[in-house]
Each structure stands twice: as structure tokens, then as C-alpha cells.
Design goal:
Blueprint: H1 3-30, H2 38-63, H3 70-91, H4 96-116
Helix pairs in contact: 1-2, 1-3, 1-4, 3-4
Amino acid sequence: MDPHFYKVLHLSGIFLLFLSLGAFIMKEMAAPDDKRFQRFIFMNHGIALVIILVAGFGNLAADMSRMASGWVLVKMLVWLVMAAIVMLIHKLPRLRQAMFYVVWAFGVLAAYMAVFKPF
């Protein structure tokens, strides 16, 4: 399949991931006891993670990249952090504002690894 298809799919998953994480952080800061939107946010978070994973591996296969490259391993670690960070946001109320920027920083790290492939 065309590598551009996987790149667009990967980016769409990333957009959905950041939308859901931003929404979850704002919901937790504004109304942590209100559970009305939590299921919707978690559902979109999970869908985004699956899209990112499938499209990322599809893109690696289409570009014939090596799976054991350092930049790929860093991006997989970032994916795991993004998957688990909702638990930290929920369990550590005093760090919610900081998590807003931590999520952003991990996104920048993943983008840096994808663009420059430093190792």
C-alpha cells in the first residue's frame, strides 16, 4: 500500500490522541467527579492508540525500515507513555497542569524521532 496513506492515517490518529488527552486533562481539572464524558474520551483515546500503532507499523513496512532502529524504539516507548498517561492524570490531581505540557513534550519527542531519525 502507498506509504502516504499510512502517514496520513498515522497523523489522523495522533490528532485524535491529542484531542482526547487534552479533553481529559481539561475535564479532570474542571470537574473531576463528573463522569459523563469520561467514557467518550477513553473510547477515543483507545481508538487513537490503535490507529497510531497500525498505521505506524504499516508505514514501517511500506518504507522497509528496520524495526530495531533506535528511533522506532523511542517512538514505541512514547506510544506506551501516551497509553498510560491517562492513569497518571486521573490519579495525581496536583500534576494535571504539568501533564498538559508533558503530553506536548512527548509529542515533540516523537515528531523529532520521526523526522530526524537520529539513531
